[in-house]
Amino acid sequence: MNGRSVSDRSIDADTVRWAYRLFLDREPESEDAIRHHLAVSASLGELRRGFVGSPEFQRQLGGFARPSMIGTEAPLDIETVDDPARLQRLLD
Prior knowledge:
The protein is mainly alpha-helical. About 50% of the residues lie in helices and about 0% in strands. The chain contains 5 helices and no strands. Helix 1 (about 15-25) runs parallel beside helix 3 (about 45-50).
């Protein structure tokens, strides 16, 4: 083994076809689509992130998708509660 993780490995057209089948449950729409993924994904990890982050994959997840925070969200306005009785009412 060469010490590289699987995610670091380069990809080819067959890898992209299998990503379509695995993540989107369909064949690629065209050879141009395959060439696009080869151009924008330098590794298997980048290809996977592209498919998992795609709107089509997210729609297929339906109710299983959980929102994730990536660190670029606007700050939240959080109200604090200093009164223990009020805090208990909120928790109840």
